[in-house]
Specification:
By secondary structure, this protein is an alpha/beta fold. Helices cover about 20% and strands about 25% of the residues.
Length: about 260
């Protein structure tokens, strides 16, 4: 299952059924679990843990040193869950001391070609990063988010669950759950109704989310005033509370 031209460090822990293609390099302190397929010309450095049933395509660079001038060789790691697809030329960096030393990728994610996940990012589950979407350091991405091609996310920014960003979006403020970012320079453009319907949200809940969006984001009212006006919706719908809690706790401010 391991090609004769692959180079594997003696300290790497690799499950018996893992397949590793020609000319791939697996470095020290790398752990790869059952069912994972590594294509040709992939480089994986550690400390990195890779879960079950992942597919990593050619020329990906996984677990490399962070692109951070403050990094001076301290111990840091990358953790990747299960059932992820990591396509050609994707780059994922390990963490830094300033970010807790760990970059994390959850489960069931699709990272298309040329995606970059920088140091200390925390990526959830069931997320799609389209071609060349990039997250700077310390970014958080919630479950079921979809980042369109060439989306750029500023460091320390948070992308809420079920969000959708259009092609070429530049995001430097937090994006609350369910919101569509629909312009080149990070502006809110409504609720991701199509995505919510596909994931089983009822029409009633979606209408409540839309109404909360109109009050808290589109109206551009001060945060506390908007949250007060949305109080009834918050009390009635847990899904709305998820969005308003995100808005309440945002440190960078939210897209509008």
């Amino acid at each position: 299952m391991i090609h004769s031209t692959a180079i594997i460090d003696d300290s790497a822990k690799i499950a018996d059924d893992v397949e590793i293609g020609p000319y791939s390099i697996i470095g020290a302190q790398v752990e790869i679990n059952s069912g994972t397929w590594i294509g040709p010309h992939v480089v994986i450095n550690g400390p990195t843990k890779i879960g079950n049933n992942n597919k990593i395509f050619q020329f990906a660079s996984v677990g490399e040193d962070p692109q951070d001038l403050k990094f001076s060789g301290e111990n840091s790691s990358l953790e990747i869950g299960d059932n992820n697809t990591i396509r050609e030329n994707v780059t994922i960096s390990r963490g830094t001391a300033d970010g807790g030393n760990v970059t994390r990728i959850g489960n069931n994610n699709l990272l298309m070609a040329y995606v970059h996940i920088a140091h200390d990012c925390q990526v959830g589950n069931n997320i799609i990063f389209a071609n060349s979407a990039s997250c700077a350091g310390h970014v958080e991405v919630g479950d079921h988010a979809i980042l369109g091609g060439f989306t750029l996310v500023h460091q320390f920014t948070k992308i809420g669950a079920h969000c959708f960003t259009s092609m070429g979006s530049i995001i430097n403020q937090d994006v609350p759950p369910y919101v569509v970012v629909a312009s080149a320079y990070g502006k809110a453009g409504g609720i991701n109704k199509v995505g919510l319907k596909r994931r089983g949200f009822s029409d009633k809940v979606i209408r409540a989310i839309v109404n909360a969006y109109k009050i808290t984001i589109r109206s551009k009212k001060p945060r506390e005033q908007a949250l007060q006006e949305a109080a009834d919706l918050i009390d009635q719908y847990e899904e709305v509370k998820v969005m308003t809690d995100f808005i309440k706790n945002s440190e960078r401010g939210i897209v509008r």
